[in-house]
Design goal:
The structure is a homodimer of 242-residue chains. The first copy, chain A, is mainly α and 242 residues long. Chain A folds into two domains: 140 residues, Orthogonal Bundle (Ribonuclease iii, N-terminal Endonuclease Domain, Chain A); 66 residues, Double Stranded RNA Binding Domain (2-Layer Sandwich). Helices cover 56% and strands 10% of the residues of chain A. Chain A contains eleven helices and five strands; from the N terminus they run αααββαααααααβββα. In chain A, the strands form two sheets. Chain A has a three-stranded antiparallel β-sheet with strand order 3-4-5. The longest helix of chain A has 22 residues. The first copy, chain A, starts with a helix and ends with a helix. The interface between A and B is large, with 40 and 40 residues.
Chain lengths: 242, 242
Amino acid sequence: MAISKIYKLYLSPDRNYVKALRNLIGFVPGNLSLYRMAFRHKSIALGIKKGVKNSNERLEFLGDAVLGAVVAEVLFKMYPYKDEGFLTEMRSKIVSRANLNQLGKKLGFNKLIEFDPSTVNISSKQSSLLGDAFEALVGAVYLDKGYNFTKDFLINRILNPHVDIHTLEVTETNFKSRLIEWCQRLSKEIQFNLIPNQEGDSDKLFTIQVVIDGELMATGVDYNKKNAEKLAAEKTCEMLGV
Amino acid sequence: MAISKIYKLYLSPDRNYVKALRNLIGFVPGNLSLYRMAFRHKSIALGIKKGVKNSNERLEFLGDAVLGAVVAEVLFKMYPYKDEGFLTEMRSKIVSRANLNQLGKKLGFNKLIEFDPSTVNISSKQSSLLGDAFEALVGAVYLDKGYNFTKDFLINRILNPHVDIHTLEVTETNFKSRLIEWCQRLSKEIQFNLIPNQEGDSDKLFTIQVVIDGELMATGVDYNKKNAEKLAAEKTCEMLGV
């Protein structure tokens, strides 16, 4: 073991933090400040440097992109005979906020994450704190160790042990029921309205509008009424971050 | 020069193709079939293997993700004091279909791309043929040479010489005028409708709906009327791929 690792793990004032991190990510971090940043939620961002918050949001931007590339390659190689539509949908399922939040929870992020509990409820279903921190961690690993290391880390430490890709494949995300549940939880009224066709439209097309508390959210159009509903619900879920 | 490179450039039956590719990408390609695939548009995809078309669409999926990660890192490092909203917006500008199409044109992709001219008009402004091929090329380079090579290729051969990031920074994408132009070109009628506030809404909120040929496309809500229009126009552009 390199001397710097021995120092970090056993002698430095940060040794407990380093050990906790090592247990979580499976390796001894190089640049500690990157990881501290990845686990710092904006609610407690203190230092403001030239307009930029001292929080994990920039790392989240970077990590989201790196995660997207790694997952794209994994799927590209895992499914050589599936088209790009399938690959795109599978990736959305893997990197969905719900899935990443769950990952962050499983990995025990709650022990490392710093946030202001008076303004943020980490266990709220609405909260994307854990998923955001997961992406930020990917950004930190990338800056600390480079692409190939990050790819190995994601595949061997995250995707293989924690994400069952083949189960996700057959799980159809039911956006309509997800949306209805969300509205029930927040006591909002939701309607799926079938809109009469305009002159000149094909008779066979269905147009469904999702309306929540009287406000039009999104429209779905398809030759199949159920698909039109699904489309409209999916767009709404995306808009609302549900 | 390695023997395989000498063979490819001067002796192989593919030598003219290899030289054309080398001029374009700046290096001698390893796995030629990846590059042929990157320049094969779905309109002439011949071989159907177990339901997958022999075209560049899967590579485009992969290349889009790799390009996104490289551009994210470039921006992250170039703008250390800008927030994630700025970085996201800048990346959208750089990887916009319009920008990538222009890049493909500049790089002379029209000489390499294979498509069916009876069904596709490569010079049409609607066509995303060149931009799609650009992303597919990035996917091919990635599979052929790995991430770090692709990053260097993109930075030194594409971004630095061809993309003026600082000009893009001050260019505000005017979605409203882009949408209006598009409608004029296709003789579609467009309206930006101000929707009266619902009971309980803040008086200060503006809701703008974009309606094209009588069909509601998207809604924008903001405290500033111009911003609400911009938001609605942006969503519509995204939906329509304008």
